[in-house]
Structure formats: C-alpha cells, structure tokens
Amino acid sequence: xxxxxxxxxxxxxxxxxxxxxxxxxxxxxxxxxxxxxxxxxxxxxxxxxxxxxxxxxxxxxxxxxxxxxxxxxxxxxxxxxxxxxxxxxxxxxxxxxxxxxxxxxxxxxxxxxxxxxxxxxxxxxxxxxxxxxxxxxxxxxxxxxxxxxxxxxxxxxxxxxxxxxxxxxxxxxxxxxxxxxxxxxxxxxxxxxxxxxxxxxxxxxxxxxxxxxxxxxxxxxxxxxxxxxxxxxxxxxxxxxxxxxxxxxxxxxxxxxxxxxxxxxxxxxxxxxxxxxxxxxxxxxxxxxxxxxxxxxxxxxxxxxxxxxxxxxxxxxxxxxxxxxxxxxxxxxxxxxxxxxxxx
Length: 344
Known about the structure:
By secondary structure, the chain is an alpha/beta fold. The protein has three domains: 71 residues, no CATH class; 36 residues, no CATH class; 190 residues, Ethanolamine ammonia-lyase light chain (EutC) (Rossmann fold, 3-Layer(aba) Sandwich), CATH 3.40.50. The protein has twelve helices and twelve strands. It has a six-stranded mixed sheet, sandwiched between helices. A two-stranded antiparallel ribbon has the order 1-2. Helix 9 packs across helix 11. The radius of gyration is 38 Å and the shape is elongated.
C-alpha cells in the first residue's frame, strides 16, 4: 500500500478526533488527559512534523487517573480465586480418572474396548511403554505400591487402636519379623507366656471367640479392623450370641486359632488377620472362621471372608455378614467343606 496515503488518512482521523475534543470545551479534562496523549510522527519524509492525539474524556466504563495516564476498566464480576479454580479442576480430573482410567497406549487399535478393559480390573494393563521399558509414571506407581507392601509387612499395629478396642496383646513363638517370614510354623504357635496370659484374662468356653492378628499386613488391621470388629459385635449382639474376651496376637498365622481353641474351648473362633499385601492393595483384611478348632484341624475345616478393604468388601458390611455366617456354623455345627456338605 501507499505509505503517503496511509499517512494522510491517519492525519484526517486525528484531526477529526481533535475537533470533537475541542467542541467539548472542557479545558480541565484536556489538561488531565495531556499525559496520556499519543504522538504520530511523519516517517515518510525527513521533516519533524508531528500530530498529537488525546483520548476523549468521560468514556463510559473507563476511569483515568490524573497525572499518570493509566486506564482502569470496570469489573463486571468478581473473579474466582485461582486456588479455588485449580482445586475444583483437580478434583474433577481425579473423579474422571477414577471412573475412566487413562490408557498409556498411544493410538490403540480399539480405544473403546481398551478403556472398558481397564475399567474392569485394577491390574496394570494398557500402561504403554517407552521403548522397551515402562513409562516413568507407571514405574513410579509400581515402586510406590511395592514400598507400601513392604511397609505393611514390616510395620507394627498402632497401640492406640488396641487400647481403643480394648484388646490386650500376646505374641507367638516369633520375636523377629525376618524369622516370622522364614518360619511360618512358629507363627502358628503361641508362646508359653501368651498361653499363661490368655488363661488368666479370658473367659472360658464362650460361644464366639474373636481374635485379631497383624499377619502379613499391619496396615490392613489399622485401616479396617475397627469397622469390622464393631460391626461384628453389633451383629452378634442382635443375634443373641455371647462372645469371649477378645485379644490381639502379634506376628500370628491363621492356624494359631488352633492353640486358642485348645486353651479356651469356644464353639466358633473368628480370626481377623492381615492378608499378604499385593501391588493392588496392601490393606486387605481376611476373616477366618472355624468350628471348634483344635490341634490337628485341617485347612478344609476353615472358612474365610477375604478382600475386606475400601476397594473390596466394605469393612462394615463384612462385619455384619460374619454374624450371619457364624449363625449358620452354629446351626450345622460345622465349618468349611463340612458345612457345605451338610447344607446340601
């Protein structure tokens, strides 16, 4: 385009605006807007001619500050704090991620089917790869879950929880965690001191004897035991079943209920014990039940309600259900495979 033509058009516009300002006759406003003037230079020639433009005063919605030439626009709505916006956005992302887990596979052949498969299992499928290796996010999540599993095995149950549930503590023949892992047989037997304490503190021959043990996951006991235990007590009370003195066995295995059965002679023993942790959950609790357990009881005579945690069977529901199972065991005077055979 012709630069001279552009210059002429610009000057005409400026002169028109200046003439409009002059008609206002408001010298005070002109003086206040002096600092915010815009200067146009004639860059097409060597002359130093210039034209000056000052904004028209009293523009609706605009405030000018005298002596500074700053323009402040009106606010039509108060903006939301940035922290609230980010928090709401993060919560929505977490909600959508829980409902529709994202896939790490780039350009999958059938994305809808892959999304459906991922939503149906907590297993690590569709995580994708970076070359021959897993992606960074996948690897970090794996390391995190593995660390949680190790902590669950080597951790200890909080003493406050035991006090809150009024559980006294005894131990098996294992004193060290490494020995407990290498020698499962020692975790199935109560120590002599534990037997003495149980005889002194526990009521003999109850209908139901409840015991708790950390097993292979102290985290499972801390996260789920209280809800299961209180719900189970309420269920047994409503069914009119009496319970013995509950207690906690440190570093116990499932078959430790046989020693308890020999000592207290209950009709049913319920053992709430931490499951072996995995990479999906390190907080899963199991409830083992047995009718009149004694030394020499075979595994087929035991029953188990497993996978009790927030991602599996809800703890409160599990406790209520255990009361129904105990009622059935007492009715048929059997547990495990024998119970199934008698029912049929």
